[in-house]
Design brief:
five-stranded antiparallel beta sheet; Rossmann fold; Spermidine Synthase, Chain: A, domain 2; 8 helices; 26% helix; homodimer; alpha/beta; 275 residues
């Protein structure tokens, strides 16, 4: 058992994944990309030395990131995805037959290529004719955007390197600007266990940008246990579910889970500005 | 950085903790006990090669195991704890000034000794005069028990070795028998990520033993992310909070968290018998 990948969450503490076979290694224009297979998690995608997606438990993340705003918004027909190059978020959004168009803008086409090649369970929706896939800078796209969306979903990497601007107040304000009044925005907002300083800064920006901002929490085992997300709206109560009916099978998310995610634990009140 | 402890959740997948100093190694009558210090998690207690408690994140587990039944029961004055040798569950229960007596029965006095010596933040309630600490077999105690309790809390190790009987239907039925009508029972019921077969068996037993049984889920990072618990009652709705008011500081648990924990994700419905 010679090859192991260790994601060190903090000094002296990390997750240990035994590698079965290294499938792909590449330095793209934006990040270092590695794909390997494992016995425990199927195929794993690593970006800049961080676990981005594993075939085994990606559904925890993608279902919660995508269906929460899709259910909070009123029958969302037009959706924008920023990032999400592995395809998992697009797959979830396109499960709804009522969705008419999904604009998706991903900065690194190499991530899309490796997902298509090695993770068909994630990239399966890239051929959907309702998906308009663009390669480019999401920050610029959203700054210049004249359209309106029912849902805007930010599926980004960590706030380092190319993704930093995807956590800024101007970016979040532009996301809010292009939302319809009954729409909903979601973004991943890092680990409440290991990135609390980053989270505090992210939530300062989010709380300024949205008339109503609700943090929510859900498990993602390969991200260290618990993960945080934000739901931004123009005043809608997130516990009011108004999206399309879920008439397809999901592994984790359901209406009951939705209602349970918005309860803020004591140790996360201050960093999300709930005090 | 030579010494590491790796808890392998499944083959090829585990948590990696760097050891600062090994503080104690002992084979007790019942289990192998190791205590070491870490940079990331303070002092860590290992029983039979499994992480039992870490100073850093024990509160996720103990608060949720103890306060959930304490809040579901009506003003609980008499509490029974089975296991819980590190003292964390007793500490939580004894925070309520309304609690009059806590009977605690732990099989391995060596666990209590190492907790007193190395983990004062956990063992701090052992000197409380309301605590009646007994060294013995919880299964026998509860089988022969003639008393009634407002709360019964099972804080056990995994269902291997000495703890197997703590997951059986006769044991759970006896726990139910000694509960008052308005009382509440809680038990840890293993990892919904890595011990699903064990969970399915545990929930078959629990569902038979209690008139009303509600699974609940909450994060414990050092247990692999997510952990499961069961609340057993004689028919009470667990979302009705009737316990003593919480007038002390907790790190994680609050009323809002309580209400959110009972939502059962899709991938946990079958194993907990909710279908």
């Amino acid at each position: 058992m010679p090859f192991h990948f260790i994601e060190e969450y903090q000094r002296g503490y990390g997750l240990n994944l035994q590698i079965e076979k290294i499938l792909h290694v590449e330095q793209s224009k934006y990040q270092h990309i590695v794909v390997f297979s494992t016995m425990s998690h199927g195929v794993v995608l690593i970006l800049d030395n961080c676990i981005m997606t594993t075939e085994k438990d990606e559904f925890y993340y993608h279902e919660v990131l995508a269906h929460t705003p899709m259910q909070a918004a009123r029958e969302p027909r037009r959706v924008l995805i920023i990032g999400g190059g592995d395809g998992g978020t697009a797959r979830e959004v396109l499960r709804y037959t009522g969705v008419e168009k999904v604009d998706m803008i991903e900065i690194d086409e190499k991530v899309i290529e490796v997902s298509k090649r090695f993770m068909p369970g994630l990239s399966c929706a890239f051929d959907d004719p309702r998906l308009n896939l663009m390669i480019g800078d999401g920050v610029k796209y959203i700054r210049d955007c004249k359209e309106k969306y029912d849902c805007v979903i930010v599926d980004s990497t960590d706030p380092i390197g190319p993704a930093i601007a995807l956590f800024s107040e101007p970016f979040y304000s532009n996301c809010c600007r292009i939302l319809v009044d009954e729409g909903a925005f979601s973004a991943q907002t890092e680990s409440p266990l290991f990135q609390r300083d980053a989270m505090a800064s992210i939530y300062r920006n989010l709380n300024r940008a949205f008339p109503r901002l609700d943090p929510y929490f859900s498990p993602v085992p390969s991200y260290g246990g618990l993960w945080s997300y934000a739901l931004g709206t123009k005043g809608k109560n997130p516990t009011t579910i108004e999206g399309w009916e879920i008439d397809f099978d999901l592994k984790y998310y359901n209406e009951s889970v939705h209602l349970g995610m918005f309860h803020v634990p004591n140790d996360m009140k201050e960093i999300t500005g709930r005090d």
